């Protein structure tokens, strides 16, 4: 083979090898940056997730407190309605007794 051609091809292959080496270096830099970015993103996500978890816990506790208050309110209202029902029944009984008394008085008066 022609020595000039061999020298030319050697130079070209060396240039290609340098370019491949440069590309390998750039890819490695990108991989390193991506790993760092991935780690930063993961840490940020963990912080945000922990904050959300805390907030959700607070909301859940608030819901439980409201549920307990609502249950106490329901019980209290139920008891008050029962008391009102008892009073109403007593008043109905008294009104019925008065109606009977008035009816008897009117009959007695007519006689």
Note down, in words, how this protein is organized.
By secondary structure, the chain is an all-alpha fold. Helix content is 97%, strand content 0%. The protein has one helix spanning 3-110. The relative contact order is 0.03. The model has no long low-confidence stretch (mean pLDDT 95).
Structure described in brief:
Helices cover about 95% and strands about 0% of the residues.
Shape call: rod-shaped
| Rg computed from alpha carbons, rounded to a whole number of angstroms | 47 Å
Record field, number of beta strands: 0
Sheet with the most strands? none
SSE layout:
Layout: H1 3-110
Could you name the key traits of this structure?
111 residues, mainly alpha, 1 helix
